[in-house]
Amino acid sequence: MQTVKVGFRHLLAIMGLYLLSILLPNRGKRIIMLTTLHARLVRDGVFHAETLQKLNDSLFLASTPTALTLPASIYGRVWDTSQLQSILNEIDGRYDGDTCLLYADARKVSQSIISLTPAWLRYGSVDDMMRDVMSLFYCKPLTLP
Q1: How many domains are there within the chain?
Q2: pTM of the prediction?
Q3: Residue 75 lies in a domain
Q4: Which of 46, 112, 131, 141 could pair covalently with 87 via S-S, beta carbons 3.0-4.6 A apart?
């Protein structure tokens, strides 16, 4: 009987996520995906704790950073720690969260993260998602006049 209850809850969760994927606009999916990813990476020590304001300023996610509070608090339900850790283990050991990755490394990590993104959180094109995730890891060099 217990396994039936667990199976039923799992089925309800799948149906709920499917409905959410249909009803949630791409902008909402983008906010949830990037905010939860950032929160997970901060929690795992990949990034230093930064304010949601700084994340919002760099990625232009929401009109107010308070809109990012709820997504940041549910990262544990969205991202699998062991899968993300296996991806991040591929990063050069010199990466400390303060420096930017080389372009090739940022691209490789971003592609792997996008492949782990739950289907209900996929928004826009793969290129759009790639650009957003890469912006977390790769800093474009400054061009001086």
Answers
A1: 1
A2: 0.80
A3: yes
A4: 112
**Amino acid found at 99:** T
CA dihedral 14, 15, 18, 19 (to 10 degrees): -150
Q: How far is CA 100 from CA 13, 17, 107, in A?
A: 37, 34, 12
Residue 38 lies in a domain: yes
> And the tokens for 92?
């050069």
Query: Two tokens at 43?
Result: 């929690």
| Residue 46 included in any domain | yes
SS (H, E, C) the chain: CHHHHHHHHHHHHHHHHHHHHHHCCHHHHHHHHHHHHHHHHHHCCCCCCCCHHHHHHHHCCCCCHHHHHHHHHCHHHHCCHHHHHHHHCCCCCCCCCCCCCCHHHHHHHHHHHHHHCCHHHCCCCHHHHHHHHHHHHCCCCCCCC
Range of the domain at 76: 25-137
**pLDDT for residue 143:** 47
- The Cβ of residue 72 has, within 10 Å, a number of other Cβ atoms equal to 19
- Residue 11 belongs to a domain: no
**Is residue 109 a contact partner of residue 88, using CB atoms and an 8 Å limit?**
yes
